[in-house]
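Entry:
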Amino acid sequence: MAGKIIKIIKEARFSIKTKLILSVLSIAAILFVSCVISVMEYTRMNDYVSTLIAEDIEYLNEANKLADMCNEYNLEILSVIGEDISQDLPVFDDGTFRSHCDRIPGSEKVMYSYSAYMLTSAELDNVLESDFIDTRTWYYERLQPRYQRLHKDLNELIEGIHTQLQKNSATYDRGFYRSMVPGIVAVGVGILLLMMLLFFVLAYYVKPIESMLNALKAYRNSDKTYTFTFDGDDELSELNADIAEMTSDDQMLRKRISALKNRTAREQN
């Protein structure tokens, strides 16, 4: 079946207009398909990576909120055990902290250190009421180390989110340039096809036309026989055959007129 189709194509006669239209349409089709692929790849990549980046930014904001909550609570505890011990005991919003922390992937270490810190901070009421426990000693020797561990884990969580955000941003950049590859290839192929089309037009149309004009000039100036021929099956080939036929008829007509003039001249003499 494929062989029959190829044979039909080889035997088909295409006009100059058809050949040029098919060539231009082929280039346009390649460019269009490549552009569609580029747009689809960029859209897919943009949707996927943009979602990851948005999530990382949200996680980063959540982690910063947790760090601010812990820092504020720790300062309030320090204020209570300092000079103003008559003020109310600070209250930490445990539910809000846990809900924010649960939304952040990889926050298990933070929850562990947070639980240890909150368990120790719950001793504050008894420490303040006791006459035997020094509040500053309790804070710096028991609570502060746990807060520093919590603070360290929160910073590591924030740095991890920053690192992931940078990776996703780099992935976005790489994906952007990767999505441009089909377009760049399409432009390169389009330029190559245009060069091939230019070569085709010059070799199969411009050069034959120049040769036909040179043969016509030689025929007019030197009365040489028009003998230019080339392979082809389109209008240009038909035009060349018609020119060859017309010049041949014209030469025959000139010979007849010349012979008639010579015979008339002889008869007059």
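Helices lie at 2-11, 16-80, 94-102, 108-121, 124-129, 135-222, 235-268.
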